[in-house]
Amino acid sequence: MVKIAKILFPVAVPEPFDYLVPDKMKLSIGDFVYAPLGTQSKLGVVWGFVEREDTKKLKQVLEHKRARPLNPEILKFVNFTAQYNCTLQGSVLRMVLRSHKALEPSPDVTLYNPTGQRPSGLSAARKRVLSLADIWPARAGEIAKAAGVSSSVLGTMTKAGLLERFTAPLDPPFAPPNPDHEGRDFELTPKQINAGAKLQALVQQKSFNVALLDGVTGSGKTEVYLEAAAQALRAGGQVLILVPEIALTQAGLKRFFERFGAEPAQWHSAMGDAARRRVWREVHNGRARLVVGARSALYLPFADLQLIVVDEEHDGSYKQEEGVIYNARDMAVMRSKLAGAAVVLASATPSLESLTNARSGRYHHVILPERPGAATMPDVALVDLKEHKPDAGRFLSKPVIDGVTEALSKGDQAMLYLNRRGFAPLIMCRACGERLKSPDTDSWLVQHKRTGRAVCHHTGYSMPMPTACPECKTEGALTPVGPGVERVAEEVSELFPNARIEILSSDTAGNPQAIRTRMAAMASGEIDIMVGTQMVVKGHNFPHLTFVGVVDGDLSLGGGDLRAGERTYQTLVQVAGRAGRADKPGRALIQTHMPDHEAFVALAAGDREGFIAAELSMREILGLPPYGRLAAIIISATDAAKANEFARKVLNAAPRAEGIEILGPSEAPITILRGRHRRRLLIKAEPKVNLSAYMRSWKSRIRAPHKIKFAVDIDPQGFM
Ligand code: ADP
């Protein structure tokens, strides 16, 4: 028998491959190695060892890479993620190894600092260098560029004792957070202290514990979970705070800074390679102690993770829908279990799944029932659009216009919420009835006035807005139908010509920096009326905002998503919760055509319990989560007949099992996407069924022909 190393590569492979280990090479699990894969020498990770007799065809490991190994916990987490989500181990490892270069130590750079000497009679060039502010310590190139001098000046200035030269790592470590810094300018309330103490006690146990931090909007959940973070930091551990992508705002980061006296390491999709490399390396060696990141931060190689916080745990953006399909909230719970760490799920509108776990005692339930100090909850009311019809071609009813007027007259701010980008969601020809469609996708083109284009929101396809109908060629007959944020902003600017109005949506706000700037402008009162999409919903505090108008409350109820009611309720509680943050009372009005819908009735009555009870009983009758489990199979092919044929084959390959019900195949709501015809199957399982195992066994019976794609989605959230 020969000892063989199993090596997993960060590529689309289902499992590790076997390799011989050269005699002198001492390998351990988690080590990085180079080994031949195809014609290449590829970086992989030692996943385990086995004894084998037949080793004739095996190749040898080529090189043991001297780098800190991955710890066993992460290996187990990769395995779990792959198993649970029915996906390839190698693809999950690729999420962990996002930054190969991070395995190398940081290269050094040469930096300069002024020595403080400033003799008289300096040359103009030297003066310019020494008068640079906010740049030190800096590299030669940066200084030369900023001061408009040649870099040779820096050498002579160093010789003359005006500058000092030293080397430092290119990627500096993050300043350590100080758990006892306490830079806040307010005291926590007794209820907040109590909640914080409960979470701290869980962190102290250094074992797997899940807590649901369930507190109304603005109750101080962030402050409370930062106390739990302080506890983990005191114990020398690392803390990961997951936030919905867009919530990485300046204001949010400032609060971490104030609490711990140091900037946290950040991780999100808009980061450049250099920043990624730095964070990865520092997390891996355990020196980055506090990390704030979007969902993929969960796959960073923490050395000693003691706490994960999932802020806004109900948020849909924790679900990754492409590549490896996974839900970061659920995977965070597993990650904590493997690390023997605590996990805090925080939300004002917890998912029914988490709430059920908290009520059954599986999770600790920590409740913050009120806002601190004088801040009160906003008053929420409905506007029945059948009764209060907006004028023709308009979208705001009189009560909403009055609400904005009142807020502005008091010197406060107003916000209008509509989760629709662009000017109009549909462009129709008045002459022939044609609706402009995306060329290879089943969706309408959206009119964007700012850019003058017609855009497909599913694929990003766009074209200049035509002047004539592409079908009947009539000039000037194309008409926008329905509102997007741009159109609402236009209406508002006609109604309030002197108001400072801003639109906040992903296409107008651009990069994270631009978003932060706009959020800061809103917080400081430089904007009177903000018109925004879901970007405005998440975790922002605007102290002068006292009125929120929801332009179309019904929007998220369509689409056949089983969570439509829950999502509508959550989103609108969050939107309304932006109002009345400080000592000014807030008000929210929701425009709807369905004032009797249970989600709206509950919103207006502030009856969360009533809504939850109604929603849960409906789910129980239908056997939907949390009373049953769901999975989906999504199939796509360039040809409709082939998609149908393959979908039938997939269905026929389904293993027989108790407690499983299969619905479909049927056409996906977006039937054609980028030229591919899409079909879906929905699998409903009773709670006792191990659904992942069932789906794995089903998947193993399917061979997709060339050019046909299929993916398994465990616990599907969107039903696109
Ligand atoms: P949540 O996350 O529950 O929505 P936050 O933690 O964001 O609430 O707090 C809402 C706002 O109230 C923040 O601006 C925060 O600084 C402030 N705040 C929280 N606790 C207190 C307190 N005890 N006293 C004064 N202000 C507080």
Topology, element by element:
Blueprint: E1 2-8, E2 17-20, E3 32-37, E4 40-52, E5 63-65, H1 72-84, H2 89-96, E6 108-114, H3 124-130, H4 140-147, H5 152-159, E7 163-169, H6 190-204, E8 209-215, H7 221-234, E9 238-242, H8 250-260, E10 265-267, H9 273-284, E11 290-293, E12 305-311, E13 319-320, E14 326-327, H10 328-339, E15 342-347, H11 352-359, E16 364-368, E17 379-384, H12 398-409, E18 413-417, E19 426-429, E20 446-448, E21 453-455, E22 462-464, E23 478-481, H13 485-495, E24 501-504, H14 506-509, H15 512-523, E25 529-532, E26 545-550, H16 564-576, E27 587-592, H17 598-605, H18 608-622, E28 629-637, H19 640-652, E29 660-673, E30 676-685, H20 691-700, E31 709-714
Parallel strand pairs: 8-15, 8-16, 9-11, 9-12, 10-11, 12-15, 17-27, 18-25, 18-26, 24-25, 26-27
Antiparallel strand pairs: 1-2, 1-4, 3-4, 3-5, 6-7, 13-14, 19-23, 20-21, 21-22, 28-30, 28-31, 29-30
Helix pairs in contact: 1-2, 1-10, 6-7, 16-17, 17-18
Bound molecules: adenosine-5'-diphosphate.
The site of adenosine-5'-diphosphate (ADP) has 16 residues, from helix 7.
What can you see in these coordinates?
There is one protein chain. The protein is α/β, with parallel strands linked by helices. The chain has 6 domains: 2-100, PriA, 3(prime) DNA-binding domain (GIY-YIG endonuclease), CATH 3.40.1440; 108-169; 190-368, Rossmann fold (3-Layer(aba) Sandwich), CATH 3.40.50.300; 379-420 and 483-616, P-loop containing nucleotide triphosphate hydrolases (Rossmann fold), CATH 3.40.50; 424-482, no CATH class; 629-714, Alpha-Beta Plaits (2-Layer Sandwich), CATH 3.30.70. Helices cover 30% and strands 24% of the residues. The protein has a 7-stranded parallel sheet with strand order 10-11-9-12-15-8-16, with helices on both faces. It has a 6-stranded parallel sheet with strand order 17-27-26-18-25-24, sandwiched between helices. A hairpin with a 2-residue loop joins strand 3 and strand 4. Helix 1 (72-84) packs antiparallel against helix 10 (328-339), helix 6 runs parallel beside helix 7 (221-234) and helix 16 runs parallel beside helix 17. The radius of gyration is 28 Å and the shape is globular. Residues 186, 188-189, 192, 215, 217-223, 372-373, 541, 581 line the site of adenosine-5'-diphosphate (ADP).
